[in-house]
Amino acid sequence: MSDTAQKPSRAAKQAEAMDSRYHLAAGMKRQINKVFPTHWSFMLGEIALYSFIVLLLSGVYLTLFFDPSMSEVTYNGIYQPLRGVQMSKAYETTLNISFEVRGGLFVRQIHHWAALMFAASIMVHMARIFFTGAFRRPVRPTGSSGRCCSSWRCSKGSSDTPCPTTCSPVPVSARRFPASPWVFR
Predict the structure, then answer these.
(1) What would be one Gene Ontology cellular-component term for the protein (predicted)?
(2) How far apart are CA 116 and CA 179, in angstroms?
(3) Domains in the chain, number
(4) DSSP label at residue 72
(5) Neighbours of 175 (CB within 10 A)
(6) Which of 75, 114, 156, 176 is the most exposed place for a label (fewest CB within 10 A)?
(7) Considering the domain boundaries, does residue 25 fall inside one?
């Protein structure tokens, strides 16, 4: 056995310097040492969180290319069947994202499926919390944030126009009840 100790690497020195300045090791150790859930139903909250993060990131990317204007334009893009058709600028930019932006249709599909996963995982997660009685005292901040997130998602999905292809400023809630239009005016 030799008595010489190995010299710490440059990365180890930088990590030690960062930890001495910002004190990150204690928080990181607590996160790493968390016990992983033993039942699959505890992962529903994480699925909702991760799908929401994907939804935010893909939404920011799509926002860079989308123009929500309802002004009428003539489509002259790549998609042949719609050339020369009058449409809203919002629909034209949606077609441009799908056909002309590299990876645009893929990102739109990711955004769509993340929204569906977010909604489904929130509903199933809230049902699990209700049926297992996990909502009882002590009420944790995560429970309150879950209720806020669920109510926000429900109000968002039932009040907005879901996509630019509808070309209608009428909210979804008004289209669900066409027999009683006076309620929504």
Answers:
(1) membrane
(2) 28
(3) 1
(4) E
(5) 14
(6) 176
(7) no
